[in-house]
Structure formats: structure tokens, C-alpha cells
Amino acid sequence: GKSEDKEWVPVTKLGRLVKDMKIKTLEEIYLYSLPIKESEIIDFFLGSGLKDEVLKIMPVQKQTRAGQRTRFKAFVAIGDYNGHVGLGVKCSKEVATAIRGAIILAKLSIVPVRRGYWGNKIGKP
């Protein structure tokens, strides 16, 4: 996104806590299972390590009286390669806007991945 040049002004209580360094890690947010409503919170914690990948862009059509109305649906997966992953889906008239929106939604839906295998608590986050 274009978050580097403009200053982030938090609008949620959680955002303010993050900005004031009251919350140190993403794990603290997950611990109290708070909803993350601002994508900047994720940028704040995982900023440099985040990689996003556009999985698929598909045209979807709505039938109207005048004909079809085509919009593009973008699927974006995002994650740092260290136990956090998110998926975003966004529909928009242009491909670029769909992708940009999907990236933001993917950031909001980031969840921690527990490492290890069945019946074993190895690698707790």
C-alpha cells in the first residue's frame, strides 16, 4: 500500500494502543481475540516481512436489464514466513482496485498458525 508517506491516525481503541506501544506483539492481540479492524496494525508489527501473492483474478458477471456487468474478483494470500497467514477476497470494477482491496482484507484476516503435528505441543507460538 501507500502507507509509508502519510502518517497513520488510528481510529479504533486497539489501533491507539498499538500506536502508543502499549501492545508489543500480535500475539497479545490474539490472546484476547480482539478483532483487527485496521490493516496498519499488521503493517506496524509485520511490516517488512510480509509477502503477498495474488492467487487468482476471475471475472464475475451480474445480469442487468442492459446486459452484463463485469467485475473482477481478486484472491490474495498474505503472510510473513513465520506463522502468520491471511486470505483476502475483494470484488471491484478494475483489477488493480480489487487487488489493493484484497490485500487490505488479507491483512485484516491474518491468523497465527500453530506449528507442530497431531497430539504434540511442539512449536507453540
Question: What characteristics describe this protein?
Answer:
single chain; 125 residues; alpha+beta; Double Stranded RNA Binding Domain; four-stranded antiparallel sheet; 4 helices; 28% helix; 32% strand
C-alpha termini separation: 28 Å
Class from secondary-structure proportions:
alpha+beta
Major pleated sheet: 4 strands, antiparallel
Low-confidence stretches: 1-5
Number of domains: 1
> In the CATH scheme, what's the topology name?
Double Stranded RNA Binding Domain
Task: Give the SSE map.
Layout: H1 13-19, H2 26-31, H3 39-46, E1 50-64, E2 67-80, E3 84-92, H4 95-108, E4 111-112
Antiparallel strand pairs: 1-2, 2-3, 3-4
Protein name: Small ribosomal subunit protein uS5
Pfam families: Ribosomal_S5 (PF00333)
Keywords: Ribonucleoprotein, Ribosomal protein
